[in-house]
Specification:
By secondary structure, this protein is mostly helical. It is built from 6 helices and no strands.
């Protein structure tokens, strides 16, 4: 049976197709709804972590589902924004490639008995990605404000943090492997 924290995480995964569907049919009101849904879904990441730690519901399933849900959410939104031409494809590829690389390295490290835990740059990267995607999802001009330049600027910052934190994971991983080989 799924505990409450895992149910919240699973709800985040199940919300991704809803968000994709909303983004598939862009219009000013639909994009506003999509942004609200995106924010609510992104906030469930905080909720499931809080619930898991507060009521000691941390589980192996949760450790697998939580980062999967995060990657599905961000990757799906990026792909839809590329589909509409609102984000450059290369930016989405770099961000998604980093996520896949870190996931793979974590799996290899876990198999060797090590943990590649999220660090402050990885967490900051995730926050900036969510914040950057909000104006990009909103897309249309609202009350004379065009959210696209703000979103593009924030996404550029997120991209820098993405590359930096990904490089840190790779370096940390290979240091652990070299320590193991030397021992």
């Amino acid at each position: 049976m799924l505990n409450l924290a895992n149910q919240v995480t699973l709800a985040r995964i199940l919300a991704v197709p809803v968000l994709i569907l909303l983004l598939y049919f862009p219009s000013k009101p639909v994009n506003a709804v999509a942004m609200v849904v995106f924010i609510l879904v992104a906030l469930t990441d905080l909720a499931d972590g809080f619930i898991a730690r507060r009521w000691q519901m941390v589980s192996n399933l949760g450790k697998f589902l939580d980062p999967l849900a995060d990657k599905l959410l961000i990757s799906s939104v990026l792909i839809m924004l590329v589909f509409h031409g609102w984000v450059q494809a290369w930016m989405a590829i770099v961000i998604i490639a980093r996520e896949l690389t870190v996931t793979g390295l974590r799996a290899i490290a876990a198999d060797q008995g090590h943990v590649l835990a999220a660090d402050s740059f990885g967490k900051l990267k995730a926050v900036i990605q969510v914040v950057a995607l909000c104006p990009l999802i909103l897309h249309y001009t609202w009350w004379g404000f065009d959210p696209q330049p703000l979103g593009a600027g924030l996404l550029a910052i997120a991209l820098i943090l993405t590359v930096f934190s990904g490089a840190k994971y790779v370096i940390h991983f290979f240091r652990q492997v070299n320590r193991d080989d030397a021992a």
